[in-house]
Design goal:
- This protein has 282 residues and is an alpha/beta fold.
- The chain is built from eleven helices and ten strands.
- It has an eight-stranded parallel barrel, surrounded by five helices. A two-stranded antiparallel sheet has the order 8-9.
- Strand 1, helix 2 and strand 2 form a beta-alpha-beta unit.
- The longest helix is centred in the middle third of the chain and has 22 residues.
- It starts with 8 loop residues before the first helix and ends with a helix.
- The mean pLDDT is 96.
Length: 282
Amino acid sequence: MTEPQDSSLSSLRSRSRLAIHTITTKPWSLEQACENYAAQGIPGISIWIEAMEGRRAVDVKKLVDDHGLRVPALVRGGFFCDPSGTQRAARIDANRKLIEQAAALGAEMLVLVVGAVPGCSLQDQRTWVRDAVEQLVPMAESYRVKLAVEPLHPMYSGDRSCINTLAQARKLCTAVDHAWLGVAVDVYHVWWDEHLESEILQLGNLGKLFAFHLCDWRVPTRDLLNDRALMGDGCIDLRTIRRWVHEAGFNGWEEVEIFSTDHWAENQAKFLSQIISRYEAL
């Protein structure tokens, strides 16, 4: 493992629960991401399935271990919704393989973006999601991989996710009622919710607060997918939300997840240094 460039103990302690999603530094290969995260004293790397393409999980696990990193999450499974029962069954099977892959990586959880399809009622789709999750949780428990449902902003309800609020995600978890099912709170998707504080507290009280993702909401947003902002460059009250999460009992990883065409075009080493600086400023 490469020695951290910043030897300050206080700085390293402030990064002790920091993880970066590989999509955040998308131009880097997985090898480059591991090397650079470790060199900066970042202990966690959440791995996107795209970064795994053409690789065996056992080889990726060795790469991560050789750099002294841990894997909070494999990102992302889900996409359960389809009007065809045959297709829904195939997607559940695909998620079973992802649970196996997450376990092989030593990932703590598999993040689920549940999916949506135009032209089908949201209620029907939420029923499909519940059915899928109910089928997957016994395997998740067996493999000791948590399933973290990530509600997406309502702008994605037509074609990406029929779970759009923390309340909907909480109700799903309550209905399925399994210890290995919980929620990923991504500030980009939930910051606008007037019930955010109380929902975070309820999730904490239920033991369902599995993950916390950081970025910011650029104003104006020029692209709804690939224009997320670096923390502090947008309008989200990150310090307040982070405080609510901690007050709810969360002591897990704080994962930086930024999709940004602009930032992907930058020098990634400089971008990573900015991420660390903004994170420590929180």
